[in-house]
Amino acid sequence: MPESPEVQALADALGERLAGRALTGVDVVEFRVVKTRTRPPDGLVGQHIERVSRFGKLVDLGFSSGAHLVVSLGRHGWARFGDGASTSTDAPAAAEPPMLASLAFDDGGAVELTDAGGWVSLGCWVVDAPRDVPAIAKLGPDPADPSFSRADFDRAFAGRRKQVKAVLQEQESLAGIGNAYSDEILFVARLSPVAHAASLDDAELDRLFAATVDVVRGAIDARRGIPIDRLKQAKVDAMLVHGRTGEPCPGCGGVVQDFSFASTTAQYCPQCQTGGELLPLKG
């Protein structure tokens, strides 16, 4: 699932490429992508893009009329330039994900919105303001925002009898973090992912706050300037424990393990995070 560092890099790349460009055509291949049926994206044809922004894990294309095209990448969505203008020197993937919608612009270029999943998770809204999209309206503070404070963090965690990994991924509490970066944050903080937020002492909360800010902002800095067709791989390559099951822990040399979380699996180091205790896996 795309998370805030990669979505920020994507928004930056789209903004650099599209600012001032006029939308000349829209091709929706999969009708389920459009969530505002009375305001389809082709109603924006002829308007110029003024800016591209990120809200949590969503991308907002702001147009000259004041309208916005908001894109939720969902679990497997992404974007690519449709005119062969990638700056990556890597060989293309053997099987690219299908294009579900395409936006054409007056420079002859296009942005294709894709979804690699077995079900459609990509979504688009045409709205007057980004907060008209429910997923944006409910967002909590974003650790990438320079104004994000310890008070914002404390409000998310204080007194919560909920596992810290779940709180980190709860978009109403903290915007933009998903399964991968929550694993990374908890590893850096040396905390068990299943500990309840209410059980953390002051020193543990200090470590968790610092790790949350440092991991998210560090990843955003690291992804800056990477071609959008390389961002997903760059994320995978940078992970310390997420997706590293069976590999040596970079902290202690122990073995990174899986555990069950919600409807998926996540990774952690027992020696560094749980005092050697193995967390359960569904059989």
Automatic annotation (TrEMBL):
InterPro entries cross-referenced by the UniProt entry: FPG_cat (IPR012319), FPG_N (IPR035937), H2TH_FPG (IPR015886), Ribosomal_uS13-like_H2TH (IPR010979), Znf_DNA_glyclase/AP_lyase (IPR000214), Znf_FPG/IleRS (IPR010663)
Tagged with keyword Hydrolase: yes
Segments forming domain FPG-type: 240-274
Reactions performed catalytically: Hydrolysis of DNA containing ring-opened 7-methylguanine residues, releasing 2,6-diamino-4-hydroxy-5-(N-methyl)formamidopyrimidine
The keyword rRNA-binding belongs to this UniProt entry's keyword annotation: no
Residue ranges of domain Formamidopyrimidine-DNA glycosylase catalytic in the record: 2-120
Alphabetic keyword roster: DNA damage, DNA repair, DNA-binding, Glycosidase, Hydrolase, Lyase, Metal-binding, Multifunctional enzyme, Zinc, Zinc-finger
Cofactor: Zn(2+)
Family recorded in the similarity comment: Belongs to the FPG family.
Protein name: Fpg/Nei family DNA glycosylase
Originating species: Agromyces larvae
